[in-house]
Specification:
By secondary structure, the protein is mainly beta. Helices cover 3% and strands 41% of the residues. The termini are far apart.
Length: 294
């Protein structure tokens, strides 16, 4: 297991970027003959094993539900894939297909590289450390909550789960009914963690958490955070730059520091697929996915 190492979260501006290059699934070889502008896709030459599952009824619970229209308009070919993810990077907010590695730039990058994202409807949320921040998928305008020390944010249905900042001295998860309530009103609930995690990801009835470099992902029942069996990642003990549970097909998606998606079986921890996106996206971190009907 890696020691608890700090690392620099790179800041970047709001300008849209050009993206290009091909990737080959399960192979480190990459070519540079492709090109695409912001809002255009980068193609990939393979397929992967990240499962899709069926569409759910809520855009927040476990990532089920409809892909937001802003994502569909900007990146239509990727948005029609069975599994569609949005991920933050220093190069921009990206729309990614974890099954084949294609990606598309949605708009300019966030102010920080948070490893946890919370999505409710048309908005993506993340922790700005001194407040919670959000953007709409069809509008790059940055919104700020009232001052609030946080380490991570995720979504649970139509609610936001916010991990209190480690500098506050608390190991607590707080539940808010809306973005506007954060730092303004008392949380709907406050629940203590036994171990302060680095990142969190909400599912339909579970919260997943991990340190930034590890070989295990913890699972807790919501809303009381009662512990459930850990997910032991077989053959993996490395950086974790984001995670998301596909609760329909029983898999866990993980993003490493080289912009590669790994898919593990949630029960056994067995590695099912490894899909590189682009080696230049080394600060790609924090992602949330939707399942399209299949």
């Amino acid at each position: 297991m890696h020691p608890a190492l700090g690392f620099l979260l790179l800041a970047s501006g709001l300008a849209a970027i050009a993206c290009g290059g091909n990737v080959v699934v399960d192979n480190d070889a990459r070519s540079s003959d492709g090109a695409g502008a912001a809002g255009g896709i980068v193609t990939s030459g393979g397929t992967g094993g990240a499962g899709a599952g069926n569409s759910g009824s809520s855009s927040g619970a476990g990532g089920a539900g409809s892909v937001p229209e802003g994502v569909r308009r900007a990146c239509p070919e990727i948005a029609d894939q069975p599994l569609v993810c949005v991920a933050n990077s220093e190069h921009g907010m990206l729309v990614v297909s974890p099954s084949d590695g294609r990606y598309c730039s949605l708009y300019g990058a966030n102010e920080n590289g948070s490893n946890s994202l919370g999505v409710i409807g048309n908005h993506v949320h993340w922790c700005g450390y001194t407040q919670v921040e959000r953007r709409a998928f069809d509008d790059p305008t940055l919104d700020f909550s009232a001052p609030y020390s946080c380490d991570a944010v995720t979504s649970w249905g139509d609610k936001l789960l916010v991990l209190r900042g480690f500098d506050s001295g608390f190991q607590e998860l707080e539940t808010f009914g809306s973005f506007e309530e954060i730092g303004v009103v008392e949380p709907e609930s406050t629940t203590s963690f036994g171990r302060h995690p680095f990142m969190i990801s909400g599912g339909a009835n579970s919260l997943y958490s991990a340190w930034h470099a590890d070989d295990v992902i913890s699972e807790h029942a919501l809303p009381d955070l009662a512990p459930r069996p850990d997910i032991h990642l077989q053959g993996y003990d490395d950086w974790i730059y984001g995670m998301w549970a596909n609760e329909v097909d029983g898999t866990m998606l993980l993003l490493d520091d080289s912009a590669t998606f790994y898919t593990f079986d949630r029960q056994t921890g067995a590695l099912l697929s490894r899909v590189p996106v682009d080696s230049t996206l080394t600060q790609m971190r924090g992602f949330h996915c939707w399942r399209n009907p299949v």
